[in-house]
Amino acid sequence: MSDLTLGFMAIGAMLVLIILGMHIGVALIVTSFAAVWVIRSPEIAARFVGAAANDAIRDYLFGVVPLFVLMGMFVSVSGVGRDTFDVFQWLLRRLRGGLGLATVGANAVFAAITGISIASASVFTKVAVPEMMRHGYTPRFSVGVVAGSSVLGMLIPPSLLMIIYGVIAEESIGRMFLAGIIPGVMLASMFAALILVFAYLFPHKIFQGGVQKADADVETETAATAAVKFIPILLLVVLVLGGLYSGFFTPTEAGAVGAAGAFVIAIIRRRLTWRKLWQVLTETGYVSVAVLFLIAAASLYSRMLAMTGMPAAITESITQMGLGPWAFLFAYIVIVVLLGCIIDSVSIMLIMLPIVLPIAAAFNMDLIWFGVLTVLAVEIGLLTPPFGVSVYTVKSALNNPAITIRDIFAGTFPFVAVMVLALFILALFPSLSTWLARM
Fold this sequence. Notes:
By secondary structure, the chain is mostly helical. The protein has 21 helices and no strands. It has helices at residues 3-19, 24-39, 42-55, 64-77, 80-91, 98-111, 117-134, 139-150, 160-169, 173-179, 181-201, 223-245, 251-268, 274-308, 310-321, 325-339, 345-362, 367-380, 389-398, 405-428, 431-434. Helix 3 packs across helix 14 (274-308), helix 11 (181-201) crosses helix 20 (405-428) and helix 16 (325-339) packs antiparallel against helix 17. Residues 12-431 form the TRAP C4-dicarboxylate transport system permease DctM subunit domain. Part of the tripartite ATP-independent periplasmic (TRAP) transport system.
């Protein structure tokens, strides 16, 4: 049996184990260890595991993961999400569909200081959905706009998926963050345009009875109170992203400064008790360890694939078949979207990238542009059945039996369609992703 055949068998076994319920990291390690054992020897397989555990995450750069996660946790408990929504609600109060637009805008700003879609989905389900339903929005649209716009957290920097891609592809995380700005703003603008189209042309799709109720409560907000709420948010965004993009901070330092800034905001607002602080720290540990364990497992998986010669063999096969870069890109995106229906976003990247990155490089594709397309394609999986992590997060945070999982998936469908259109645009115009990153 050839090494290449063993490599394909290892991938098949890994997918079976994941479907059966094994943790993705454990599945990666077990199948990679077994494949190297068969190809070489038990001693080399053991050394491979040791090298992956020792080398994969010891670099200073990996401190960016727990620091940005910690910043996101402090932001979540500080009430920044609620205040962000209040400010956008006041700014957009005169527009039909203003609460939907406020949700998208608040999600976009919240994404710029968290980078975790699940956090956005959880916060704005509790903040925005009750407000929209109270003002006559249909339940399906209310949950759909929250789940749909929550994916902005993975595209607008700082983004956890951008960090993971940068690590695996050995691309600058700072450049990956820069590459996500224009696509993130573009996607948020397309979501806003979608809501305006529905509000003015098809009001019965988003308003109960086709009529938006008056929003008298928001008149209690003034420019002064809105400024007081928004200044801390603005300062945190400027501190983190301004310092990062000006070159004053490295990504890791930006994460540390952001976490400290979010901590200060939570203290000043008196939202951080000792109990909540302990919950924030433990939750940060859980998330960070899970991500870093996956990265270590992916390192072993990548080495196993390189040993079998699979990436080179696939690249050669695609070349001999006459498939060009566009055919490869289309097939890759379709596979990623389909995988998003059954496994989570991080797992998709860890499984697919070690295989496809050498192929993309062989086609002379810009790997930063390729990363933006990957993140957006993976984001679509957050909203598609049956897995749809953001959808299940909204359902869990909502705690309303009258709104079913089916309602939420149906509400997110227009946003999924917009994301597919955005993916098509970004594929046709790579400069939208690379212009800022290459400056």
